[in-house]
Design goal:
112 residues, alpha/beta, Transcription Regulator spoIIAA, 5-stranded mixed β-sheet, 5 strands, 32% helix
Length: 112
């Protein structure tokens, strides 16, 4: 897994690519630790390029959310693929960590 970091306006977007599993936990934790010194209030984990995440990744996201809430900061998950979305919903993670949906094309205007 690779993580690309974008920071601006007190918001950090972490773009993950690959599978998010137990073996990648240290990379994710180190990335979060580095954000701690950058005055970030909201962390968005972009899952658009993640094909799979396991129970260790789910647990890590839950723990991260608890820590951020305790620090009066926020965590959101963005653009999960269908399989990843199913995993998140089966674990009920979407009930505690907000999901940011993909951009939806505007509705076509009605013609009379």
């Amino acid at each position: 897994m690779t993580i690309t970091e974008e920071i601006g306006n007190h918001v950090a977007t972490l773009k993950l690519e690959g599978s998010f599993t137990y073996t990648q936990r240290k990379l994710f934790q180190d990335t979060l630790k580095n954000l701690g010194s950058k005055n970030v209030e909201h962390i968005i984990v972009d899952l658009a390029q993640v094909a799979f995440l396991d129970s260790a990744a789910l647990g890590l996201l839950m723990i991260t959310n608890r820590q951020l809430v305790a620090d009066k900061r926020r965590l959101s998950l963005a653009h999960p693929q269908a399989t990843v979305r199913q995993i998140i919903e089966l674990a009920n993670l979407h009930k505690t960590i907000p999901l940011i949906e993909s951009n939806v094309a505007p509705l076509a205007e009605k013609t009379a």
